[in-house]
Specification:
Layout (H helix, E strand, L loop, with lengths): L13 H8 L3 H8 L7 H13 L17 E6 L15 H16 L3 E6 L4 H11 L3 E5 L5 H9 L4 E4 L10 E4 L1 H14 L5 E5 L5 H16 L9 E3 L5 H13 L6 E4 L2 H13 L9 E5 L13 E5 L1 H16 L8 E4 L1 E4 L5
Helix pairs in contact: 1-2, 1-3, 4-11, 7-8, 9-10
């Protein structure tokens, strides 16, 4: 006796169809949205399965007032189930989302922002309940178990802000190594020899990229490279930069320049340097990272490494749309160029 397929009574998702038809979710999406480049046998199988599962065909046509697809941003700093840019507290994440939304809006694709899920069951519920077609993970902290599960389920996603190494996944990130090299070259050209790094926490992939860029740049410029020259803040905020800088200066080693992994850390560092009776840039040059708006209003105005964060979001959205349209899912990492913005702190 043949086993009956489950009846979903109008609540079936494209993931359910993909599972029953034994195809990928992107293939189901292409078939239901009448995209080309799907063979006739697969197309018939998907339509047959969708009909048997009572998939509501009203989702597919007459979508003038409702997008055919819904994309989700998952952020470590968003409030749970919040929607819209005000829910994000990280400046880089706001700009990435803004850039991505410009692409999705042109394609009439709905977007929502959610807090990063803690486990696979929560992620599965989020996708099923909200009919999520694809995801963009924001920032530099990713649960690789969740990402691997998404790959197993053929659910397209892109990480925006950092790579997902050692997992092979589609990622968009700034060229952090290039940025760090340009910062060290600028300091070396100004005669600085004892350059230190106040990095971010180990939990972020971006911190490791900046660290390796820092080490590489010191070697390329024949500069000293000792363990004490690199320390970390507990986060990327002003207080962490202040505490880490005081700790660094208290060691008593020569320091004539400090590069910070974030402008917030650097602003805290400026205060710590002042309290240690040193002057910026006369005694110690300071360089930040990310070129946030407040950097030019620091005292002194902060030299920093910037990049186009909205471009990062646009690239992530375009890659995700291509995956949904059936582009080969050959994982790749795209980088956005960085540039040094020189101000009064160097």
């Amino acid at each position: 006796m043949n086993e009956r397929r489950p009846r979903y009574k109008g609540q079936a998702t494209i993931r359910d169809i993909a599972r029953e038809a034994d195809v990928s979710i992107s293939t189901v999406s292409r078939v239901l949205n009448e995209h080309p480049y799907v063979d006739s046998h697969t197309r018939k199988a998907v339509w047959k399965t969708a009909t048997e599962l009572d998939y509501p065909m009203s989702r597919l046509r007459g979508q003038a007032s409702k997008a055919q697809r819904t994309m989700a941003f998952l952020s470590a700093v968003a409030d749970s189930h919040s929607e819209g840019l005000p829910a994000l507290t990280g400046g880089i994440e706001q700009l990435i989302v803004r850039g991505a939304q410009s692409v999705f809006e042109d394609r009439r694709i709905a977007t929502h922002i959610y807090q990063s899920c803690a486990d696979i069951d929560q992620l599965r519920a989020l996708i099923d309940t909200n009919q999520i077609s694809g995801l963009i993970f924001l920032g530099g902290i990713f649960d690789r178990t969740l990402l691997a599960w998404l790959q197993e389920q053929s659910i397209p996603f892109v990480t925006a802000g950092a790579h997902a190494y050692p997992l092979e996944a589609n990622s968009i990130m700034a060229n952090y190594v290039q940025g760090m090299v340009s910062a060290i070259e600028h300091l070396a050209a100004g005669g600085r020899r004892h350059i230190c790094l106040v990095n971010g926490p180990k939990t972020t992939n971006t911190s490791s990229e900046k660290y390796w860029g820092f080490r590489l740049a010191l070697c390329l410029n024949d500069l000293p490279c000792a363990p004490y020259q690199s320390t970390r803040g507990s986060s990327f905020d002003v207080e962490s930069g202040f505490i880490a800088t005081l700790r660094l200066l208290a060691l008593g080693h020569p320091v004539d320049a400090i590069v910070y992994a974030d402008d917030g850390l650097a602003v805290g560092g400026l205060k710590a340097i002042k309290e240690s009776q040193r002057k910026v840039p006369d005694d110690i040059s300071v360089i930040g990272f990310h070129n946030y708006d407040f950097a030019r209003f620091a005292e002194p105005a902060l030299t920093t490494i910037g990049f186009d964060m909205q471009m990062m979001g646009r690239l992530a959205a375009l890659r995700l749309c291509n995956l949904m349209d059936g582009a080969p899912d050959d994982p790749n990492v795209m980088t956005v160029s960085t540039r040094l913005i020189v101000r009064d702190s160097t």
